Amino acid sequence: MKIIQYSTQHKKKWDDFIQSARNGHFLSYRNYMEYHSERFEDHSLLFFDDKDQLIALLPANIKDETLYSHQGLTFGGFIVNPKMKVEAMQVIFLTLIEYLNSINVKRLIYKTMPSIYSDALAQEDLYALFIFGAKLYRRDVSSTIDLQLPFKYSKGRKWTVNKAKKEDLELCQMTDFTLFWQLLSNVLDSQHGAKPVHTLKEIEYLHTHFPRNIKLFVAKKGDQVIAGTVIYETEHVAHTQYLANSDEGRDLGALDLLIDYLIKDVYKNKKYFDFGISTENEGLDLNKGLISQKEGFGAKAIVQDFYEVEIK
Questions:
Q1: 144-303 placed in CATH 3.40.630.30
Q2: CB neighbour class for 204 (10 Å; exposed up to 12, middle 13-18, buried from 19)
């Protein structure tokens, strides 16, 4: 087994592997990972077997003697070839630990990929983590609707959606993110004193490179965008990366109507509609109001785990 640290000369090999992997997704393509390259010290790794065949990738960054399965990505962990076996994954982990020890890295923080984002079963890494003494470091809870099974809205969600249907609202997809980004930025600043993770320039860059995966849907009242969501779309999942509702949108139920439209019309043939996490402080605090809204649409809990491995 051989490990090579990623460099730009490996870009095509990396991206080609993502395309054919069992659990590849667009967030792991280099054009996505490198939009914020100045924020992280990339230390992504390629794993080759004894026949010099690429069998796994680990998107990663390094900070303070810790290797993270990449902090700049929503999902982490190994991207593996379709033939990956449990025993081979154990060898990969052993090789990784030996490599990290050789470069004086003291700790591995491993972010798992929720199962809904994998095209096929791919949890060989979870067993390897157990074998090598990994400790659960963090657990976030996300809310997801299985669109292939029956689900029900709460009375409150039904009422709000029906109310909004009586308003003169336009629901549509937009390619210009400017108005929504103004709304999103204002909402985050006023409610949380925060900013979007992406700047407008960054989300426009990512949308240009991944137009089939990153989409903006809004609710408009006249010319005004009063609610909206940025969807990260994979083959099986529609994920609400950002959600924002103006004061007027909240009064009219605009965001609930937009979500209802996405669930029942735009993405009705997807397997999952994922609202994302409702936890803060590395999973220790539950935002009860936020998760209640998501559960009101019939969403159920899935978890995303982070593991810590001490390198000895």
A1: yes
A2: middle
Q: How many CB atoms lie under 10 A from the CB of residue 285?
A: 10
Average pLDDT of every residue of the chain: 95
Residues of the chain with CATH 3.40.630.30: 2-133, 144-303
How many Cα atoms are found within 13 Å in the side-chain-facing hemisphere of 307?
19
Place of tokens 């680990």: 58
SS3 of residue 147 by DSSP? coil
Q: What is the pLDDT of residue 38?
A: 82
Q: What is the pLDDT of residues 17-57, one digit of tens each?
A: 999 999 999 999 999 998 877 889 999 999 999 999 999 99
pTM of this structure: 0.93
304 CB contacts (<8 Å, ≥6 apart)? 75, 111, 112, 113, 114, 139, 140, 142, 277
